[in-house]
Write a structure and sequence with these properties.
The protein is an all-alpha fold. 81% of the residues lie in helices and 0% in strands.
Length: 277
């Protein structure tokens, strides 16, 4: 067992996105002061994300033996039971940090933890319910940041964008994992209805998201820098992803698009950050 295995279990890039999401939410809510509550919110979100990624690998071990055999548990880097304990420790750390903020923050972080645990244990293997659960938890990261500084209203728009982006990406990930999901009786959207309906679902979600991203600029919530970054750096990737998704139906392409969308989320955060000035 190596410490690097635990780091890989937590998926550091996903953890970074979670921390940045909460930080950006705090910034756009009009609070740049590094208070204890701000730090607690950012690191609490990071711990919960790491815990959820770890418990996901715990429950997905048989699927990962087919789809991702180099992941820490199927490759033997981390024992399955140790991964379970690691996830509980991370969940506990995240929830306790939520207590340092306020009661509302504690309720959000506890509810999100339970939702993500249940997602890995059960919902992930259902049609769209799992996709909805993980997308909702991502959106709540922005609400969580707003709650931490007592200004929740400004966090709603990025929360909606995050939900839509993740919803579309989760469907593409399901298309990527269709082989292992079929063999392990995980009834996801592409397993139940096939790739074409799954592609149409992702396409509709991305189209709606593109339309929604224009509204904050039109009604003067975010400025010109937001519009330019969204247009050139976010929506262009959504269009490219949609086209490539329809051109190909192999695991490698879906994996590449999933990674690309993950990076696109960082660009989206930058757009919102820049749009406040």
């Amino acid at each position: 067992m190596k410490s690097s295995g635990y780091i890989l279990l937590s998926r550091p890039f996903n953890v970074l996105i979670s921390i940045l999401s909460i930080f950006i939410a705090i910034v756009i809510c009009g609070n740049l002061e590094w208070t204890l509550k701000v730090l607690a919110a950012c690191f609490s979100g990071g711990f919960i994300t790491a815990a959820s990624n770890t418990i996901n690998d715990y429950y997905d071990v048989e699927i990962d033996r087919i789809n991702k055999p180099n992941r820490p548990i199927p490759s033997g880097m981390v024992r399955r039971k140790d991964a379970f304990v690691f996830s509980l420790l991370l969940y506990t750390a995240g929830i306790l940090l939520g207590l340092l903020i306020n009661v509302t923050a504690f309720v959000i972080v506890l509810s999100t933890s339970l939702l993500l645990f249940f997602y890995s244990a059960k919902l992930k293997r259902t049609v769209l319910l799992g996709n909805f659960a993980v997308s909702l938890s991502t959106a709540l990261a922005f609400i969580y940041g707003g709650v931490a500084v007592g200004r929740i209203n400004n966090a709603v728009i990025p929360a909606v964008f995050a939900f839509m982006m993740h919803f579309g990406r989760e469907i593409i990930k399901d298309m990527e994992d269709i082989e292992g999901d079929k063999k392990n009786r995980a009834i996801t959207l592409p397993v139940r209805f096939g790739l074409i309906p799954a592609k149409w679902s992702a396409t509709i979600i991305f189209f709606v998201l593109i339309m929604l991203t224009i509204i904050p600029f039109i009604i003067n919530i975010y400025g010109i820098w937001y519009f330019l970054i969204v247009l050139l750096g976010v929506n262009s990737i959504l269009v490219y992803t949609t086209i490539r998704m329809w051109q190909h139906s192999n695991k490698e392409i879906f994996s590449q698009l999933s990674i690309l969308l993950k990076a696109d989320m960082i660009v989206g955060l930058l757009a919102i950050f820049a749009g406040r000035w």
